[in-house]
Specification:
alpha/beta; about 30% helix; globular; 14 strands; seven-stranded mixed sheet; 8 helices; Rossmann fold; five-stranded parallel sheet; 2 domains
Amino acid sequence: MITHSTEIKVFSGNSNKPLAEAICKHLGVSLSSIEVGHFSDGETSVHINETVRGRDVFLIQSTSCPVNESLMELLVMIDAARRASAGRITAVIPYFGYARQDRKAKPRDPITAKLVADLITTAGADRVLTVDLHASQIQGFFNIPLDHLVGGPSLYRHFKNYASEDFVVVSPDIGSVGRARAAATKLNCPMAIIDKRRPRANQVEIMNIIGDVKGKTCLLVDDMIDTAGTIVLGAEAIKKNGAAHVYACCTHAVLSGPAIERIQNSCIEKLVCLDTILLPEDKRIDKIEVLSVAKLLAKAIENIYLDRKMSDIYN
């Protein structure tokens, strides 16, 4: 059932409430009331405190750390809205976790991105809105409409002031070449590629650098930074090859394990990221700058509600 109402309902889980509040501010609505907590044994408990019957409901929840808890909160919120007769349920997932296992890289591997897509659909979501999936083919894992926003333009606008004839965009690996090429096109500058080898998960070895970085101001571009091993080793490699300045940017700042220490001690002068994942106070260091994606998501939510084409938000 899809019913347009004169009232939009936006709810938030516990993963990133500040982002949800900022989105509501851009929309000119109040964040709707919902209780998302736990029973004494740790089970997720959800209660929606206002009517959603026939309404267009948007549930904002990044499946970030603690990943399993955040995902379960999202699924239970979707189920609660469905059973309360919501007209249309859109799962707004700024950061889509479990996206790194999007194929069978070796025998007996799971494809968790597909599993999570199925869980969200089975829970009762009618639509998904997300930002910078780790792999674009994950869009095809859903049997419901999915709107895939790109965070790159927000980051590239920030680095417009840095761009000069000595500016180079650097892809930290072969998989990020498309993203780096888009950044280089927007900034009207050349690009370079770091050829790396990954012996095992969260371990990286730099093999080669393709392109000229000597004497250049370099911008490493990635969709997400987890333990920061790739980005820091990449920064060291281009610095050793003569780069004058090294900056980095990403959409999703996962920053787990030793990431903050690595970034702090690295030659990266500034890491710019989006607020798709809430950055705790203990991870806020001078080298990290956070830009908001709230306006982009608010425009996307408005376009979904009014049945407008999504491409308009980038114009």
